[in-house]
Amino acid sequence: MNKHLKNLSVTLCLLLIHFMAMAQTDSSAMKPSELKTHKSGNWADKVSIRGYMQTRYNRLLETNSQLKCEQCDKSWGDGGGFFVRRMRIIFYGQISDQVYFYIQPDFASSAGTTGHIAQLRDAYLDLGIDKKNEFRFRIGQSKVPFGFENMQSSQNRLPLDRNDALNSAVSNERDLGIYFYWAPEKVRKLYSSLVKDGLKGSGDYGVFAFGAYNGQTANQVERNDRPHLVSRISYPIELGKQIIEPGIQAYSGKFVLLSTSSKVKKVSNLEYLDQRAAASFILYPKPFGIQAEYNVGKGPEFNKATDSIETRSLKGGYVTLSYFIQMKKQIIIPFVRGQFYEGGKKHELDARSYNVKELELGLEWQPWKTFELVVMYTFSERRFEDYTLKNNFQKGQLLRIQAQFNF
């Protein structure tokens, strides 16, 4: 495995050198009159700001206050109330022909019982290698290219939370690393329009992606000097008025546990195999939409039969169906999602063991571009167990409401 990781890392470096050489060759071949010049001016003129805020309430028609979801929404169940789920301000801009930057803090993070703490989500630059930026490297903390819904912004997603099956791969969807992306100019424009037109696109993460990242999830330091490696291939295809996007992705590495109980049995260095592969299929809502993903793999998981954390198999996925309704300037999108997941969550205490089955019925209403309201009724069955909390199976229903402000 170590030899394999080193070989892939060398491949990434060679790609960087190769495309930098290509860029230099292209520039030297151009006549002086063809070279682009940059006008001097205030750097702030090239910077844009946008953002969004989400406020939720999950306690209406609740049937079980012990039904919780730590990763998706900490205001579920007992002790929950009105909750600011996200408060994001995004700074971004194309500061030169081939350099783009993106910085996104979140002002609704939490630490213990204290909420509304600022925490970095994204901080990266895109370095274009060719004139059209079809080949580019992304350097910094950003989303790991694994799973369509993981990369889809929470500002655009229909269900209030990401599915457990693929989101358990990367907490907060992000990590520090370097990623290579390639997509033709035509496809990059299509990616942009799928978001701009309200069709719930994922954004531009390339037709082909390959990268190396720490593997400890966002805002965590590297713990074993062994980067995770990830690759993804996904291509949007226009079929008449319809657009589909099939995709496959996989990653591999070693994960070092972040939190364990004192008496749980575990390997001495807390390092476990962490591998997954996934398939995605998207039919964009024009007007009927399908979004489906499934992943399999291996990772750390608590085993209550042995009171130990072991490398075990995992599996799970989801299907979301939606229907896009345009009423003058208003948009209404009813949707339904079914999901299941069997496996561990490596970033939680003792790599907590999960068995999730869930059905969600929802409606998104956009009376204006600046405001969205989502109402969603959830039927949930969750078994989540660690060394302290064993035989913990919770079943219930709840009505969830979210108001979102876009600016």
Record keyword descriptors for this entry.
single chain, 407 residues, mainly beta, Porin, 16-stranded antiparallel β-barrel, 4 helices, globular
Give the topology.
Blueprint: H1 2-29, E1 48-60, E2 83-96, E3 99-111, E4 114-128, E5 135-143, H2 148-151, H3 164-167, E6 174-182, H4 185-196, E7 208-213, E8 228-234, E9 237-239, E10 242-256, E11 271-283, E12 288-303, E13 308-323, E14 325-327, E15 330-344, E16 353-368, E17 371-385, E18 393-406
Describe the structure in your own words:
The chain is mainly β and 407 residues long. The protein has one domain (2-21, 46-406): Beta Barrel (Porin). The chain contains four helices and 18 strands. Strands 1-2-3-4-5-6-7-8-10-11-12-13-15-16-17-18 form a 16-stranded antiparallel barrel. Residues 15-40 have low confidence and may be disordered.
Q: How many strand elements? A: 18
Q: Helix count?
A: 4
Strand content: over 45%
Indicate the overall shape.
globular
User: In terms of structural class, how would the helical and strand content be classed?
Assistant: mainly beta
Helix % is 10-25%
The H-and-E topology, N to C, reads as HEEEEEHHEHEEEEEEEEEEEE
Strand order of the largest sheet: 1-2-3-4-5-6-7-8-10-11-12-13-15-16-17-18
In angstroms, what is the radius of gyration? 22 Å
Architecture (CATH level 2) name:
Beta Barrel
Domains counted in the coordinates: how many?
Answer: 1
Unreliable sequence segments: 15-40
Overall mean pLDDT stands at: 91
- End-to-end distance, in Å? 46 Å
Q: How would you sum up the major sheet?
A: 16 strands, antiparallel, barrel
And the CATH topology?
Porin
